[in-house]
């Protein structure tokens, strides 16, 4: 580092680490590599024509709202539309409770700035979403890790932790089709968790970017809806959502629904960050979605991703050695593969890339280390033919150990 600058870098920033996924994507950009590494939506599903028409309408009908600075809380018609969507999920949300953010990643950043001091205890699932760990790097929390199983967060293990008298700042949970494992918090555990939050006064940050990507049954009720049911308004749950998975990630439009006790502080923090989320992105998103684009578009997304998930599960059954295990997600974009003890997925990655396939090793998803024999596989981006060939290459790399 340049001597002019190194002694001036803030202490928290000296510990910044680049995302393992972003670094890996640079290596896998070559066309010959089949990448299961990213978390990218299928580009062929982007509703480009509808978004272009929405942009034209926004500029024609609300040019000042589209081109001028906007309110920090967000474009009011879009906030109201988000409230309508959440109302269908059991959250009687008024637009005054919604902050439009630059994707849900910015919402995570705001949460960290507001609630995390250096060394403060924060409860996370293990493994957990790597983007959250990145967002909170400079906050330097003390992570308290709670295991997950095929039914999601093990709430009994969380209760044992809280019974010791610890008072975490909050619990962070990806409640539906979790990134990285693809598992979903079971309905009985959701109610158990909300009751536990009330008993121990534990705030919950519920990150729900994948909830609408369900391939079996119906949309799972968010934890936040149970919070509304019990308290009539947001009390324990801060709810994060996004348009990135169902519309287009390039718009960078997400939202945060927060209890009144912290809403104003979050608005002030966001004001200091960017004044407001892009006005043009917000109005375009509103005009694209106000007439039901998401409702028409969602079945196409779910059908394609279901086909690709099924293809990956079938390829794994066909190609993998019998001692390899994996999750069977009912939605989302990822599954989690576990190798036998003694395998190291980080070391395997080099051999896999040489064979023309990429994945994300599991260790970065564990804030305390571990998971060296695991990996995350994405099925939303690759075609069925690529999935079949990529799994074949991956299985060959595993056998060649």
Automatic annotation (TrEMBL):
Domain of life: Bacteria
Family matches, as Pfam families: Aminotran_1_2
Protein known as: Aminotransferase
Keyword Nucleotidyltransferase attributed: no
PANTHER family in the cross-refs: AMINOTRANSFERASE, KYNURENINE_ALPHA-AMINOADIPATE AMINOTRANSFERASE, MITOCHONDRIAL
Organism: Candidatus Viridilinea mediisalina
GO molecular function, one term: transaminase activity
Family to which this protein belongs: Belongs to the class-I pyridoxal-phosphate-dependent aminotransferase family.
């Amino acid at each position: 580092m340049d001597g002019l600058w190194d002694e001036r870098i803030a202490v928290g920033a000296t510990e910044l680490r680049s995302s393992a996924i972003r670094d890996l994507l640079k290596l896998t950009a070559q066309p010959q590599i089949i990448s299961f590494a990213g978390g990218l939506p299928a580009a062929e599903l982007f509703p480009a024509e509808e978004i272009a028409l929405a942009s034209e309408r926004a500029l024609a009908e609300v040019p000042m709202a589209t081109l001028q600075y906007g309110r920090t809380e967000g474009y009011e018609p879009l906030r109201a539309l988000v409230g309508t969507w959440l109302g269908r999920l059991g959250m009687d949300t008024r637009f005054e409770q919604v902050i439009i953010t630059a994707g849900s990643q910015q919402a995570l950043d705001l949460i960290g700035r507001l609630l995390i001091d250096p060394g403060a205890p924060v409860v996370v699932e293990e493994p957990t979403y790597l983007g959250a760990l990145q967002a909170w790097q400079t906050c330097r929390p003390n992570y308290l890790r709670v295991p997950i199983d095929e039914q999601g967060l093990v709430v009994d293990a969380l209760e044992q932790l809280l019974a010791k008298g610890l008072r975490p700042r909050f619990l962070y949970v990806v409640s539906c089709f979790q990134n990285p494992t693809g598992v979903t918090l079971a309905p009985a555990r959701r109610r158990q968790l909300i009751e536990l939050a009330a008993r121990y006064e534990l705030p919950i940050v519920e990150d729900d970017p994948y909830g609408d990507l369900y391939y079996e049954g119906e949309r799972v009720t968010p934890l936040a809806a149970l919070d509304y049911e019990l308290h009539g308004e947001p009390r324990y749950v801060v709810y994060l959502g996004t348009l990135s998975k169902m519309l287009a990630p390039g718009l960078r439009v997400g939202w945060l629904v927060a209890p009144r006790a912290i809403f104003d502080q979050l608005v002030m923090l966001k004001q200091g960050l960017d004044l407001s989320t892009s006005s043009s992105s917000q109005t375009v998103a509103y005009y694209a979605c106000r007439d039901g684009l998401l409702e028409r578009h969602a079945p196409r997304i779910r059908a394609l991703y279901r086909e690709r998930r099924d293809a990956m599960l079938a390829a794994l059954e066909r190609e993998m050695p019998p001692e390899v295990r994996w999750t069977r997600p009912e939605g989302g974009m990822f599954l989690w593969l576990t190798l036998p003890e003694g395998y190291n997925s980080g070391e395997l990655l080099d051999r896999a890339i040489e064979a023309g396939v990429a994945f994300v090793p599991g260790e970065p998803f564990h804030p305390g280390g571990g998971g060296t024999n695991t990996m995350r596989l994405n099925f939303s981006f690759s075609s069925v033919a690529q999935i079949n060939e990529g799994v074949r290459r991956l299985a060959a790399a595993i056998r060649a150990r």
